Amino acid sequence: MLNFKLQYMNSKFKYLFLLAALLFIYNACVKKKTYSQNPEIEYKTFTPYLYPNGDSAIMVIGFADGNGDIGKDVGDTTLNLFMTYYYKDSITQKYMAYYDPFFSDTVRNGYTIRKPNDSYNGKPISGEVSVRINKYRHSKKIKDLKYIIYMFDNAGNKSNILSTPVLIVP
Question: Range of 153's domain?
Answer without folding.
Answer: 40-168
